[in-house]
Amino acid sequence: MTVATGERAGAVHVSGELLDTKRIGAFRHLTVVAPGVPERFRPGNFVAISLGDSSFLARRSYWVHRVRPVGGYGAAIQLVVDPNGVGGAWLAGLPAGSRIKVTGPLGRPFALPKEPVSCLLVGEGYSAAPLFPLAERLRERGCAVTMVVAGADEAHLLSSLEARRSVRAVTVVTADGSVGQKGRVAGVIEEALARSQAEVVYAAGPHDTLHAVAAAAEAHGAWSQTAVEVPQPCATGLCHGCPVPVVGEDGVARVARACSDGPVLRGDRVRWGDLG
Question: Is pTM beyond 0.70 here?
Answer without folding.
Answer: yes
